[in-house]
Amino acid sequence: MTSKPKLLLHICCGPCATEVIRRLQPEYELTGFFYNPNIFPEAEFQRRRQAVEGVTTRWPVRLVIGDYEHDRFLKLVQGLENEPEGGPRCALCYRLRLTQAARHAQAHGCTIVASTLTIGPGKEASVINPIGREVCAQYGLQFLEADWKKRDGFKHSLELSRELGLYRQNYCGCEFSLTKPRE
């Protein structure tokens, strides 16, 4: 019996994780990695963490919860607070989260990294995938490029979220997405 390749899945939230885990689990040994220092306030971070824990219990996946480092995120995006969602601030945020995922993957024997980020309708795979590919190459890892919203991925994630009674947030996560939404 051949073992499955070890994949670390960066998870942004429970609803986004549903369909991505469902698609990946047959082919990979998954570890979920919830690292999202952008989320504000911390109570929102905890609500999203709980939703992720529910998903990874439903489809058994080992889950690692990264530190809540909101100050690190704020320092990184300083000067970009007034940018609209989807702009340069978001690219820096994706890079921060995917870099932490790659570091964790490398340290724990995963050879592939993927992210749930591209399932969201406001998240561009054409921005996220090149960042993931570049970051993973620096760590000698493969990045599994995907646009999870294709093949009705986002629609299926909504259906699964309702079925599981998951908390669904109404903004990306950072305080700036609340005050300066996508244009």
Descriptive notes:
With 183 residues, the chain is an alpha/beta fold. It has a single domain (6-179), classed as 3-Layer(aba) Sandwich (Rossmann fold), CATH 3.40.50.620. 47% of the residues lie in helices and 11% in strands. Helix 1 (14-24) links the parallel strand 1 and strand 2. Helix 1 packs across helix 6. The chain is globular. The mean pLDDT is 94.
Which structural traits does this protein have?
183 residues; alpha/beta; Rossmann fold; five-stranded parallel sheet; globular
Question: Which helices and strands, and how do they pair?
Answer:
Layout: E1 6-10, H1 14-24, E2 29-34, H2 42-58, E3 62-65, H3 70-76, H4 88-107, E4 112-115, H5 125-138, E5 142-143, H6 153-164, H7 175-179
User: What is the residue-averaged pLDDT?
Assistant: 94
| Name of the CATH class | Alpha Beta
The SSE order reads: EHEHEHHEHEHH
Number of helices: 7
Provide the β-strand percentage band: 5-15%
The CATH topology assignment is Rossmann fold
